[in-house]
Amino acid sequence: MTIGHKQPISVLVVIHTTAREVLLLERAAHPGFWQSVTGSREGEEALVDTARREVLEETGIDTSLGQLRDWHMTNTFEIFAEWRHRYAPGVSHNVEHVFSLELATRPEIVIAPREHRDWQWLPWEQAAERCFSWSNRDAILMLPQRPHPGT
Fold first, then answer.
1. Which structural domains are found in the chain, ordered by start?
2. What are the beta bridge partners of residue 21?
3. What is the pLDDT of residue 28?
């Protein structure tokens, strides 16, 4: 990685309640593009720390309020051409690491206005349908198969 370039290593964090209501964020640069929390690793931080940082930056949620889980699952996808300038020359694909954050209730949301313009809680099925990203949709569709704490 060259200094000043984003790493092609990121996290996807599906934030949901125990009732499987999923928080989605609408991208500021692309109205109508809804997603879960995503973001690139900075420096040599552990991926769980990337997940914690991105959740706090994008929603204002402290992950200690819930159960943050590393799914030990990755997705590799081509980086959209409009965003490739952020990466080192020749980088065309990103490896995304999937996490979830389960919360007992819906906390107050404070979005990062430069990144997102709106947010909403939806039942998991509706949230999956609304996502523009296939990897985000697939992760949400897997929620019913994910174990709950203590199971």
1. 9-145 (3.90.79.10)
2. 123
3. 94
Sorted by sequence, the CB contacts under 8 Å of residue 81 that are 6+ apart come out as none
Cα 85–chain centre separation: 21
With a cut of 70, list the residues of the chain below it in pLDDT: 1-3, 147-151
Rounded CA-CA distance 43/126 in Å is 35
| CA nearest to 50, candidates 58, 59, 41 | 41
- pLDDT value, residue 3: 66
pLDDT score, position 146 = 79
Question: Which tokens is 75 given?
Answer: 């997705």
Q: What pLDDT is stored for residue 147 in this prediction?
A: 67
Tokens of 53: 């940082």
Select from 149, 43, 139 the least CA-distant residue to 99. Answer: 139
Q: Can you give the pLDDT at residue 37?
A: 98
Q: E strands, 28-115, where?
A: 34-35, 37-40, 67-78, 93-103
Nearest CA-CA partner of 80 in 69, 72, 91:
91
